[in-house]
Write a structure and sequence with these properties.
mainly alpha; Ribonucleotide Reductase, subunit A; single chain
């Protein structure tokens, strides 16, 4: 299901929520059952499961590495305060998947799953967004910095978190929940989803405010969303080869489009 629309919350309110609820520890999640479940899978199931875990791992490491640029780019103190919690949380997410590959997935490699459909959006293009923010900040260019921030937030919180990650959660739900598999991963995903819900609320709130103040940003963000929407079918297709879990590829594609539409609504670009 598409994520529900979020009630607007200020950056300070989100910071206060993060202080109370964002304290889970990746080291405290038991993985013994997950190891046994992984051993019980067929080779094709292992490939399908590992592929999606690898994309999450690479994505979490990338956003954790990139987020410092956004801390530089936000000029409002409350947004910078909230982002301090987001940096902490993204590092924890990467820590969990690093541990998961070591203790459950037998140190399987991840980089070879970064096909062009994913490498750009998760690594190269996201890195370019961050560097553009840093360059504008160092140049003392307020207009350029705001434009870079709008595009960076749309890419990071709108696409990486607000489209790819939330669609991945739904993929895991269909793969694992009905089968009672991988309880450790399911608990981690539950916690990560709560954390990233706050990130998305903050990012979409920022975009909604900037677009309301400057209508030119609407076209920039809308174009990015259109371009990323066109990439949904090949990205979904990659995640379904193999498909020994027998998941519904068409439904997963529809869910992804629903998430993208929801992000557009949250920033005022769709009814």
């Amino acid at each position: 299901m598409a994520t529900r629309g979020h009630a607007p919350k200020s950056a300070w309110e989100l910071y206060r929520i993060a202080k109370r609820t964002g304290t889970w520890d990746p080291e405290n999640i038991p993985l013994t059952q997950d190891r046994a479940h992984y051993q019980s899978l067929t080779p094709g199931m292992r490939e399908q499961f590992t592929k999606v875990c690898a994309l999450f791992y690479e994505g979490e490491v990338s956003v954790a590495d990139t987020l410092a640029w956004f801390l530089v780019g936000f000029t409002e103190p409350d947004r910078r305060t909230f982002l301090s919690t987001q940096i902490f949380e993204e590092v924890k997410h990467a820590e969990f998947f690093r541990r998961y590959f070591k203790e459950v997935l037998e140190n399987a490699g991840t980089s070879h799953y970064l096909v062009p459909e994913y490498r750009g959006v998760l690594l190269d293009e996201l890195d370019s967004r961050g560097r553009a923010i840093g360059a504008a900040a160092l140049a003392g260019d307020p207009a350029g910095l705001e434009r870079a921030m709008v595009l960076g937030v749309a890419h990071y919180m709108g696409i990486v978190e607000g489209l790819l990650a939330v669609s991945g959660y739904d993929y895991f739900d269909e793969m694992l929940s009905t089968r009672g598999l991988f309880p450790g991963l399911q608990e981690a995903i539950r916690q990560i989803r709560i954390d990233e819900g706050r990130h998305i609320v903050h990012g979409m709130g920022y975009l909604r405010q900037r677009i309301a103040e400057n209508a030119d940003y609407a076209a920039l963000v809308q174009q990015l969303f259109i371009e990323e929407g066109m990439k949904i079918p090949p990205r979904i297709d990659f995640a379904f080869h193999p498909n020994e879990f027998g998941l519904d590829q068409q439904r997963q594609q529809e869910i992804a489009y629903e998430h993208l539409t929801q992000r557009s609504r949250e920033i005022g670009l769709a009814a």
